[in-house]
Amino acid sequence: MFGRAGKASKKKDGAAAGPRTVTLIGKPGCHLCEEARTVVAAVCEEAGAVWEEKDITRDEELHRAYWEQIPVVLVDGEQHTFWKVDPERLRRALAS
User: Can you tell me the distance from the alpha carbon of 73 to that of 84, in angstroms, rounded to the nearest whole number?
Assistant: First the structure.
């Protein structure tokens, strides 16, 4: 599942870098993943960020790395949080 692209972000030198990307890593049937999906979708819509979702049951490497932490949220490939997504913290991360 993918969110929509939005406003371009700025690199530290002021050059446009394209939209920020948020990745939600989870699995089907996970109630915390459902809650995280709702928060990620809403915040990314507000911030103009792109988001994607990855299923640990379909990727052995992700399963090994994150099975005890799902849902996990990455911002531009870096781990941002796990278990519970704080919308204000995610907004701040996407704005920086």
Answer: 9
